[in-house]
Amino acid sequence: METAIERGDERGLAVRLGFWTALATAGTAAVALAIAITTPPRSGPYCSGGCIGAPYTDAAAFVPRDYLWMYPAALLTLLLIVLVACLADWVDSRRRVLGRIGSTFSTIGAAVLLIDYAIQLTVLQPALVRGQTDGLAPWTQYNPFGVFIGLENVGYAVLNLGFLALGVALTGLPTRLERAAGVVLIVGGGLTWVALVLYSVVYRAQLDYRFEVMAIFISWLVLIAAPALLALVFARSGHRQRSRVRPGLAAVP
Hints:
The protein has helices at residues 4-37, 70-88, 96-130, 147-170, 176-203, 210-250. By secondary structure, the protein is an all-alpha fold. The chain has one domain (9-41, 52-241). The longest helix has 41 residues, at 210-250. The chain is elongated and about 60 Å long.
């Protein structure tokens, strides 16, 4: 049977790990967003010049520049899995099931995205450099109707379901910072799903990568703001824990 000391040790680990992971998540999301914004679209509806078309073999000229944003994006998915694991049991016991649902959805979404980025970085990028371009058109990031965009759409849609559940769970906590982080997650998750529905209705078969771009923009803003707030939450919790421990230590002869 778990003792109070064991529960305290587990929560202390969640605080320490959560603090550093939240800081790393916010910083990595900011870097990924900055690189992605400065990477020009080479095909599809947002391309304004020098566009490439199927079978996208000309993309070799843009390696590695166009793939740089995927490195922090891949790291971001790993950090997110750790962060939501720290949050799953952090929430109030009455909403803990929501925390676990949010953690599960977020982990599934992050796993889909990680696989997607891994395919681009370890398969497509080397193939383009070597000139091995046969059969790559359906898989490349430059194909607006390809596998990459499809996995991005699925990954960010599921990820934001996790944001919604975690956000609702966090809004039940007592401090303003915790509730503010919950609101950020709810707003981000809600906006992403509204965008998915609206873009799907308006563009239908011509959806291209329109939703993917919007989903990335919203999700990464959320992953800058919410983890920054949560880092403050974990820092304050750690400070309170240390304050409670020090008097007890002082009494030991």
